[in-house]
Structure formats: C-alpha cells, structure tokens
Amino acid sequence: MLRNPAVLAAADPRYALDLIAARPAATFVALGSVFLAVTGGEALYADMGHFGRRPIRVDWFAIVLPALLLNYAGQAALVLADPAALDQSFFRMVPGWALDPQRSGRDRLLHDPSRTRRRAGDAGGAIAGSGRQPRLRGQ
Asked: What's the half-sphere exposure (Cβ side, CA atoms, 13 Å) at 117?
C-alpha cells in the first residue's frame, strides 16, 4: 500500500453513491453479498445476543473494519503491482516464512502415519473406556 496509496480511495463513499445511482438493483445484490461475507451476519447477531450491542459495535469499528480495509487495500495494491497475483492475492501477501510453519505442521499431521502411531503408543494405545487397541491404517 505504501507503493500505491491510491487504493485507499476505494473507501471513499462517493464511489458507492455513484454505483447506487447508476445501477441500483445490482448495488442492492452486491451490498447484500458484502454484508453476509464481511460481517458473518448470523454470527454477528448471535454475538449481539451474548454480549450486547455496544461491545459488538465498538469491536467492529475499532478492530474489524480497520483490519478489513487494510487487508482489502493491501490486496488491491498487490494486484495492481503484480496482476498475476489475482488468483490468490490473500496468500501472496503473507511472507513465505509465515505460511511454511502452518503448512508443514498440517502436512506432518495428515501425511505422517508413524507420528500418529507414536502418539497412540505414548497415550497407552487404548481407546479410552473401551479396553481395546486402536486400529490404524496400514496395520
């Protein structure tokens, strides 16, 4: 975003007003989709029931909205700088060192059956309360 600060202009409400005037039906559909995607509408209302209106409103404007604006503006700046990044702009913004631990940990858990066997052996190898040994793939 530092290289292309013009992407922050997308937060200007005049663009939204122009879209509403030019294509009101399309704007209604787009805003409905944006609302559901951005807020997680059903989760928002569930949280309001648990925490109340004020904490949700404060969290939204203090944390969620700024984070989303920075994320979307960063993705826009990345795609403007490198159009090939359009396919996975979110993951391409993350440095490689931050992605590797997640991927390697997940891959070890999913693709290393010996690790699973060792863990079952460390836990005594029995399924809790059943008195029988677990059957692992390949045994």
From this structure: 9
DSSP assignments along 49-100, one per residue: HHH-HHHHHHHIIIIIHHHHHHHHHHHHHHHHH-GGGGGGHHHHHS-HHHHH
Q: Which residues lie closer than 8 Å to 41 by C-beta, 6 or more apart?
A: 35
> Which pLDDT score is estimated for 24?
92
Q: Please tell me which residue, 103 or 35, carries the higher pLDDT value.
A: 35
Residue type, 139: Q
Tell me the chain's radius of gyration from C-alpha atoms.
23
Please write the tens of the pLDDT for every residue from 104-122: 555 555 655 555 555 544 4
What are the Cα distances from residue 68, in Å, to 36, 39, 127? 14, 10, 44
Token pair for 132:
């029988």
Q: What are the structure tokens assigned to 50, written together?
A: 């648990």
**Do 80 and 68 contact (CB within 8 A), yes or no?**
no
Secondary-structure breakdown of the chain: helix, strand, coil percentages, each rounded to the nearest 5: 80, 0, 20
